[in-house]
Design a protein that fits this description.
Oligomer: heterodimer
Radius of gyration of chain B: 15 Å
Strand order of the largest sheet of chain A: 3-2-4-7-1-8-11-10-9
Number of domains of chain B: 1
Helix content of chain B: under 10%
Number of strands of chain A: 11
Radius of gyration of chain A: 19 Å
Largest sheet of chain B: 3 strands, antiparallel
CATH class of one domain in chain A: Alpha Beta
Distance between the termini of chain A: 9 Å
Strand content of chain A: 15-25%
CATH architecture of one domain in chain A: 3-Layer(aba) Sandwich
Order of helices and strands of chain A: EHEHHEHEHHHHHEEEHEHEHHHHEE
Number of strands of chain B: 6
Number of helices of chain B: 0
Largest interface: A-B, 34 and 27 residues
Number of helices of chain A: 15
Strand order of the largest sheet of chain B: 2-1-3
Chain lengths: 378, 72
């Protein structure tokens, strides 16, 4: 078993700093304390070439941190990079190939215009599908229509996810958007891809988050409050949407969650961070992970079950929707929110008496997914 | 609109692959499959660079598979 023993954060948002300084902002609070023990660095980043004209980012980052001789790898799995990097860090530690793995998630995206960013992110699609001109949010728009039609979900129930997540984001000092929104404000914001509106889609963000992953045997020598990785599962799905049997289920999420739950022996976490690139995705994922019955996730939102203080709080950080979505940093930040919550360090957004929490990080439109169940106590 | 048809099992796919997901054969033929039958769409007002400013993105059935296309 592996454990997470330290986390560092940059604020997410449109930041004037460059990618190296953003990486340092989250990494330094960790390396100042634990530099000597770190024997591997994983840099979760997707688009340093496209956004920043840089390659070999992992080595540039370790050098910037003057960890010149520490081996490092950059991990790119689109929006799922952070989850894939955590999966790799846990694998390195559990296999004995490394003792203390520093995980740095980083993306600097705001230097390009929105439509250019949209094009870059759409590059994960197949050649013919990409030629049709979809954006990732447009696929969520299509999913929203199919979901509402199949399950009778109301338009307001989908938008309510954004209301909840902006309430949570306003309580997170590192969130990109720290502003409470009413349902009317969400429903009156600009249509991006019908029926989804601006405040239902994650913003274009810069940011970085770091974690330190060690073996469970070493964990208590780092901190009195380690958070254990009790289960971690990764699964993939066909990259081509036109080959998928259904568009209203995300099988990679379901399978990754089943692995994490089976390994951990925890069927239902006390809270979860899900990959809400668009509001509908939070609802569909909450069903794929078995938190709510298929077709009933939207009712759970309306009933308040997913808000802080509810039956199963989701996206206490504000989620991608409000906290922001600097792509390579996202999956690391999701796990970091679970880490904070389980250590009772989440401030005003703290979930009471939480023992187990899940983070689910998704690549593309469910092209792959990593689910991690974390908990306090071995 | 064209699809790729597996020469062994007749499975059809919209996006090219090296191996048939149905039977794992490697021989395909590209065939004309008519016009897709739309079943869901979304109107985009923020589009990827290099495309029109606004259009309808459509998913439809095409032969034994699905197709994605746009209508300006």
């Amino acid at each position: 078993m592996a454990a997470i023993v330290s986390a560092g954060f940059s604020r997410f948002g449109k930041r004037k700093e460059g990618i190296m300084d953003l990486a340092a902002e989250s990494a330094l609070p960790v390396t100042r304390k634990y530099r000597n023990g770190i024997d591997f660095v994983l840099v979760s980043n997707c688009y340093s070439g496209e956004f920043n004209d840089m390659s070999g980012l992992n080595n540039l980052v370790t050098t910037y941190l003057s960890m010149d001789s520490v081996p490092s790898i950059r991990i790119d799995n689109t929006s799922g990079s952070g989850g894939a990097a955590l999966f790799s860090a846990v694998s390195l530690v559990e296999s004995g190939m490394a003792r203390a793995v520093m995980l740095i998630g980083i993306e600097k995206m705001s230097g390009k215009p929105t439509r250019e960013v949209t094009k870059i992110i759409s590059s994960l699609l197949g050649e013919k599908e990409k030629a049709a001109g979809p954006s990732l949010p447009s696929l969520a728009g299509i999913l929203t229509k199919l979901y509402m039609s199949e399950y009778g979900a109301t338009r307001e129930s989908i938008a309510q996810v954004a209301v909840k997540n902006h309430i949570n984001g306003a309580l997170n000092p590192n969130a990109h958007i720290q502003k409470v929104l009413t349902l009317e404000q969400v429903m009156q914001s600009a249509v991006i891809t019908d029926p989804l509106r601006q405040f239902e889609i994650s913003p274009i963000s810069d940011g970085s988050t770091s974690l330190l992953v060690v073996s469970d045997g070493d964990a208590e020598s780092y901190t009195e409050k380690p958070v254990y990785v009790k289960g971690i599962g990764m699964s993939s799905e066909c990259a081509h949407l036109t080959d998928r049997k259904t568009l209203t289920d995300i099988p990679s999420v379901r399978r990754a969650g089943e692995i994490a739950k089976r390994q951990s022996g925890v069927e239902r976490p006390d809270f979860a961070e899900l990959h809400d690139m668009a509001t509908i995705l939070e609802i569909v994922q909450s069903e794929s992970l078995g938190f709510f019955r298929r077709g009933e996730g939207w009712k759970a939102v309306l009933e308040g079950a997913t808000q802080i203080g509810g039956e199963l709080p989701i996206n206490t950080s504000g989620g991608l929707n409000s906290k922001g979505h600097p792509i390579g940093a996202t999956g690391v930040a999701q796990a970091a929110e679970v880490f904070l919550q389980l250590r009772n360090e989440a401030g005003q957004r703290q979930v009471k008496n939480a023992v187990n929490g899940m983070a689910m990080n998704m690549a593309g439109f469910g092209n792959s997914a990593t689910a991690v169940m974390m908990g306090i106590g071995k | 609109m064209n699809v790729y048809r597996c020469e062994t099992c007749g499975n059809e796919i919209f996006e090219r692959r090296a191996v048939c997901p149905g039977c794992l054969d490697e021989r395909f033929v590209e065939v004309e499959s008519g016009e897709p039958e739309p079943f869901v769409s979304s109107m985009l007002t923020v589009t990827p660079a290099g495309f029109e400013d606004s259009y309808e993105l459509i998913i439809g059935t095409l032969g034994k598979t699905k197709a994605i296309y746009r209508r300006v």
